[in-house]
Design a protein that fits this description.
The structure is a single chain. By secondary structure, the protein is α/β, with parallel strands linked by helices. It has a single domain, classed as FAD/NAD(P)-binding domain. Helix content is 34%, strand content 24%. The protein is built from twelve helices and 18 strands. The chain has helices at 14-24, 50-58, 62-68, 92-99, 108-117, 164-170, 243-249, 255-263, 303-317, 319-324, 328-357, 374-390; strands spanning 6-10, 29-33, 45-48, 74-78, 85-90, 104-107, 124-125, 130-135, 140-144, 149-152, 154-157, 176-188, 199-204, 209-215, 220-228, 239-240, 268-274, 286-288. An eight-stranded mixed beta sheet has the order 5-4-13-14-15-12-17-16, with helices on both faces. A hairpin with a 4-residue loop joins strand 14 (209-215) and strand 15 (220-228). The protein is globular, with a radius of gyration of 22 Å.
Amino acid sequence: MVPKLRIAVVGGGIGGLVAALALTRKGHEVRVFEQAPHPRETGVGMHLGPNGSRLLERWGLGERLRALGVRPTGMEVRDWSHGGTLVRQPMGEEWLAEFGAPYYTIHRADLHTVLGESLPSGVVRPGHRLERFTDTGREVRLEFAGGSTAEADVLIGADGAHSLVRRTLAGPDTAVFSGQSALRGVVARDQVPALPGDTLLVWAGPDARMLVYPVRGGQFLTFVAVVPDPRRRLESWTARGEPDELAARFDGWNPDVKSLVAAVRETRRWALYDREPLARWSSGAVTLLGDAAHPMLPHHGQGVSQAVEDAAVLAHCLDAPARVASSSAARRGLIADALDAYDGVRRPHTTRVQLGSRGGGSQRLLPEEDGGESTGTMSSLVRDVSWIQRHDAEAGLPPLPPAPH
């Protein structure tokens, strides 16, 4: 039997865990090195599009997603001043039929927990902060703070927007600031009983937008307030925000938004940055995945789903060296070829999604007094992302060489 690959994943967030899940399903020996001593996901809710959920369902997580996620029945654009519904886009069963998989809103911590519980014991290694790595031509050697080391056949950088692996591969880069921040948090729905627990809501005002969607069975609502921000702030999605600032931003809006803001006890500021797409993700036996490869703005709600797609394609491509190589030299060449194939499949796709996020999503909604045409714009927003959500990353992949007898 040809031995499987030893694979090191740097970063124990959602991207790192979903990579580990896809790779362990193929029989590889995977270790996820996470710098936090006690790994846990923070943050608020997130979107899991059909392009992501279809893969996770195939990998056996459908029941858990149904238990913890919410399938919104629709999306409504409401007027920022008087609060009336301007247009409603059905979702739920209609989107399931259209895209072949469910659309979920789910708390980040819940998805992180599901992925962690799906991995074999010992895969995640907390308390390992990568300081440097060296590709020796035979293996990749990792060095961690405190002096510990590890060796692997393949290194995957899933270490987020501030990725050390990316900087080592591609050199320093400059974060591109959008001129906006997102003030985010979670409120219990019983604090805002007038708001539904099964609907995506968007209010587009003159100089801000408020998005609200359900998580945890509709018992909680995640809010995302996108506001102009002239300052280049710390690039972090967990920096502390101020509820008083949130209240001031939405003073004079409709009663539903004001009641939501009044219920907020804690908020986080996410200064919205991305980066220019890379010309290459892989070098030798090292590659990138998720935000480390393609940090993108959140306006298409695709950050996590694109990481899931990355993991699916990468696991497929790495099957070639695992199945064929009979010597270390042959295996090494096939690893590089496999990562090149992964890069070639994924990078053009994520570049299109990444650049489209800059001007897409709710940014295109205007208040009615500014000439907004809510019905037409809503239809165009759905068309903007339908090609993304219809995509099946496991369909049409390059064939693998036959396994040895």
